Amino acid sequence: MNFLSAGKVAFRSLRANKMRSILTMLGMIIGVAAVIIMVAIGAGANQRISAQIASVGSNLLLVVPGSTTSGGLRMGSGGAPSLTMADARAIGKELSSVRATSPTMRSSGPVVYGNQNWSTILQGGAPEFIEMREWAVISGRNFTAQELDASSKVCLLGQTVSDYLFGTEDPVGKIVRIKRSPFTVIGILDRKGQSPQGQDQDDTVILPITTMQKKLSGSAHVGSVGVIMVQAVDADSVKTAEQQVIDLLRQRHRIGQGGADDFSVRNLSEMLALAESATQVMSLLLGGIASVSLLVGGIGIMNIMLVSVTERTREIGIRMAVGARGRDILSQFLIEAVILAITGGAVGILLGSGGAILTSQLAGWTTVISLSAVFLAFGFSAVVGVFFGFYPARKASRMDPIEALRYE
Amino acid sequence: MGVAAIEVTGLVKTYQLGDVLVEALKGVDLSIAAGEFLAVMGPSGSGKSTLMNILGCLDRPTSGQYRLDGKEVGDLSRDGRAILRRSRLGFVFQGFNLLSRLSANENVELPMIYDGTPASDRHARALSALSSVGLADRADHLPSQLSGGQQQRVAIARAIVNTPAMILADEPTGNLDSATSEEIMGIFQRLNDERGITLVLVTHEPDIALFAKRVIRFLDGRIVEDRPVVDRSRPPAPRETAG
Fold first, then answer.
1. What is the pTM of this model?
2. Residue in A1, A327, A401 nearest the CB of B113
3. Which of A18, A81, A229, B165 is most buried, judged by most C-beta within 10 A?
4. Does residue A13 sit at the B interface (CB-CB below 8 Å)?
């Protein structure tokens, strides 16, 4: 018996028991749909994390001041202004695995334009700062090294600040007052969205760090900086860069063997990679739980096929009497089971994809329907059909034709 | 009489029924020539159904030999017997044994599905088999839409569609009234006369056995009588459409 006629025979007998076939398929439909939705949600979470990693900038290290011991009291990270502009320059100039570096400073304060004012984060940096964060200037320009050296009163506005202060007006070239000093707006930054911590990264004003130190900061330590941002040459040299920065700063700060660092280096990509692997575990877990329902669907198929084989004992006897071999009967019932499984799988894929799209629209979650998940679900449902259809089909194929013909 | 189509020697069949060993056939010797029409009679449990199952390659003998057209078939595998059934043998049962979801034509196509006949040939051959039993106009009917006699004729068409060497009929008239029984027996006689198909018929009814050319009688697993039929019955002139 060829495959086509076997398929036809199987299809007819499934159609003869429509209700039963549909209910059996429902098990597969729900199972596959659950897998598709869960994997889509997991992949969506993953994608969001990856996007956040990209928004931070790649291959970045943060050198954070602190951990100085003053009078027996150990200060926490950032507790003491131990890093200087000179440190930042040295890192940029002397280290082979460092591509760019920028000292940074953070503060906050009101920005005023006309009768509008807005309190925001003020960030001081070198011209490299926005480039390292992969942040584009969409209007106007970045400040230059000359402006940095001259402590010019220029600033770049984040989208949020620009929106609140200027609305539809073009801010470039306008004068804003930051902590009462007048600053010229020279550029507008591209929208960056939320940080991994959920902060609005566009609610900020960026200015030369030298300007910030001299004009805005009340700090006694003029020349000290907050965090030094370091970008490695490539992903492979992040580790080397980290070690080189540590060695250089220990030497510059004259920390002897065994002495504690008065700074610490944080690897940003590493922290985010951790978050990424956590979501991967979560999506694996979701998919695993959903697979259980696929298994239950498979058991449903086996159950119905066993009933079907018993019910059709006489049919099997007749088919054997007219010359069906065991393998003909086996393939007939196996194909029936596989048709049930893959039809259920196909409907489940459609339903699951629809469900995933609905989830992202109603709940606002990012969902990603990956082609590989769809193929996997489809393939898996076929495997379930073969696996759970085999036992009933083999039972049918091993019947004694005489007994089967006598069955009432 | 020509070459013996079937040669059975020393056929023994025993069943294990619980603790009891039942001897259904106790050494049967039988030879059936090609083109013969044999009626097998005997009371229930005398072993005639067991013989039919073995002759039909549905069952294997415990011991003894069974040669079909000179070839030993008693020790064939399950698959080997299935192939033999669909190519050399045809079955007609008391209860018709048609598949209720398939049309008359599709029921007749069944043996050809398993021997790989292309779909286009199947349909035409089934239709010609149906017309040779006078049912060409009922090809699309389901078994439930046909009378008992018509269903049995569909079964006969199914049995002859692969041009078998032998048809085994197990009480084919058991569920039919006498007029329809005569009709069915007429069809068997015609197949035997015109196509030379060997026929083996199991029956309880002596007047049905008279349609055959030779009668054997079973008792307790042995053949106790074997005689030719002198005064053969002939069915009434065939009517074209029977109800």
1. 0.71
2. A1
3. A229
4. yes
